[in-house]
Write a structure and sequence with these properties.
Layout (H helix, E strand, L loop, with lengths): L17 E5 L6 H11 L6 E5 L4 H9 L5 H20 L6 H26 L3 E5 L23 H18 L5 E6 L2 H7 L5 H10 L10 E5 L4 H18 L4
Parallel strand pairs: 1-3, 1-4, 2-3, 4-5
Helix pairs in contact: 1-8, 2-3, 4-5
């Protein structure tokens, strides 16, 4: 998480603007987010936060370990497929996967609170990803299924996660930049990602509403320079409406 040294007075709603950049892997959202943090310095001190789970990054890092990487990769995929199968059958995950999901939720909550602290200090914030509750099981959404049977402990963990996501999603961004990309382009940019996983995320992306936040759709199949220009134009309009010169 990047933090600028200076701060601005709080504006309008009591906190500085929040711009969320969302999209599937391969859409270029991390690259666009990093650019926007620097570019938005013209409006004032700016901070950046990554609000995703990043479980995939951890799994791919483990796969690259010498000697045990192949085994770890197969084990992670098998466990992940097992959890997804139980969710499709409207069953809660077993205890160990539930503890892992809860650990990622705690990590995400910590990052989210740090992001809010930046806004309260007056920093404009750009986020890579943003929590959502509209589609459980989809990226940046709850990992536990709704209304599924399970042990009392697993159900308690599921309730904790649900409440955490409802609270985070209740903080509406001032603007969501939704980067849309087709499957072949995403796969070409992320050859180490599973095609079926990318396909599911691409199908979900247009359905995410982020509690009614203003959303600007950007065609991320375009050259990066064009995508960035579209993002700058959208943010400029929002910042002007918020009274920033």
């Amino acid at each position: 998480m990047n933090l600028s040294k200076k701060t601005l007075p709080e504006q309008g709603s009591g906190m500085a603007p929040l711009i969320a950049i969302i999209g599937t892997d391969g859409s270029g959202k991390s690259t666009v987010a990093e650019h926007m943090v620097t570019w938005m310095g013209r409006y004032g001190p700016t901070g950046q936060a990554h609000l995703g789970k990043q479980a995939g990054n951890i799994g791919r890092a483990l796969e690259r370990l010498p000697l045990v990487g192949g085994y770890m990769g197969r084990l992670i995929r098998r466990k992940s497929d097992g959890v997804n199968k139980r969710i499709d059958e409207h069953k809660q995950p077993t205890l160990f996967p539930s503890l892992v999901i809860s650990a990622f939720t705690l990590r995400r909550l910590r990052r989210f609170r740090r992001m809010l602290a930046m806004r309260r200090k007056g920093l404009i914030v750009v986020t890579d990803r943003f929590p959502q509750v509209e589609i459980p099981g989809a990226y940046d959404g709850p990992g536990f299924p709704k209304e599924a049977a399970g042990s009392w402990l697993v159900l308690r963990l599921a309730r904790f996660e649900h409440d955490a996501f409802v609270w985070m999603a209740g903080h509406q961004p001032d603007l969501v930049l939704r980067l849309n990309v087709d499957l072949d382009t995403a796969c070409a940019r992320k050859p180490d990602h599973r095609r079926e996983a990318l396909s599911r995320k691409i199908a979900v992306t247009p359905r995410l509403k982020y509690s009614g936040a203003p959303i600007v759709d950007i065609d991320a199949n375009q050259p990066l320079a064009t995508v960035i220009a579209d993002a700058e134009a959208a943010v400029s309009r929002m910042m002007q409406a918020r009274g920033y010169a």
